[in-house]
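fwd from M.: "can u put these together and see what the complex looks like"

so here's what she sent:
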Amino acid sequence: MLEKLVDPYGRIINYLRLSVTEHCNLNCVYCRSEQQVCRAGVKEEVLTIQECLAIAEAAVELGMTRIRLTGGEPLVHPDILDIISGISRMDGLMDLSMTTNAVLLDSMAFKLAEAGLDRVNISLDSLDEETYRRITRGGKLYKTLNGIEKALQAGLTPVKINMLLLKGVNDHEIRRFVALTLDKELDVRFIEYMPFLGQENWQQYYLPLDRVMEIASAIAPLVPVKGEHGGPAKYYRLQGASGKIGLIPTLSRHICSVCNRLRVTPACTIKPCLFSADEIDLKPGLSDKEVLKEKFRAALKLKPDPARVYCSPYERVKQFQGKRFMTQIGG
Ligand code: SAM
């Protein structure tokens, strides 16, 4: 019998972000600091296939209907196809998706679809080769563009592009990204930078998403569209366009009231809120499903009161207590 996870503030928590590995084949500047890139010899955390399946099974039995695989880079996990095929067969699961940089999608998209993956979100922060290389510390733009095409061909749709807006780095490309939605069935989502690398110089990169609205509405009238799964993204369509524009204002708006998620990190801890330092270790008793489920229920109680969250970016940054980089949490 499936139950429903409802937190103390009445939010239904039906979405699990399962970060399968801390390892990544890119080193994006907003994701890892210089020191983290250079820490040779440090062991990176990876969930085993058994851990992934046990956690996903408990989550689905608790009424979670959507699971997203993320990382680090989920496609570098050696057992990713088996993880997908195990999770996709679970009764009650309605949506299995992945967030990826798409570098390996050219060779893997069809195998992923065959294994049971429903769709992908692809991180792409620049359409300019040199800027892409700079943001990813060495990545090749053509690989991600080929990956996007392959995802569309393999039916991993709707394909959503995540563009992390970085002041002075890629904000001159907003118009180009918005225009991608005109004739391609792509959803392009703009995300505000969050201070995972430290709270001192977050304003170096931070740009509120109002700028995207200004630029998009100068191209064509913007029509609001209802999002498919709830959650924090607000969607619009340029009149007559094939794809949608999504806005995820992580700092400038009060999005916590619609939070519907829990996160599991590659260190096998459950993280109730991106902004808080609280975590529950899932490793002890992992093979006992009841113990695991009790930890999920305990995590709900640690979700912060959305009424106490500020919506000014300056106040919000001060509330940020997390101690992990995004690669160690799962973006
Ligand atoms: N490797 C995969 C990828 O590139 O899509 C999945 C993991 S990566 C951590 C996922 C996403 O997390 C990034 O593309 C970005 O959108 C988000 N992210 C990482 N660091 C962030 C930050 N400082 N602020 C906001 N979003 C961030």
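replying to her w this: The chain has a mean pLDDT of 91.
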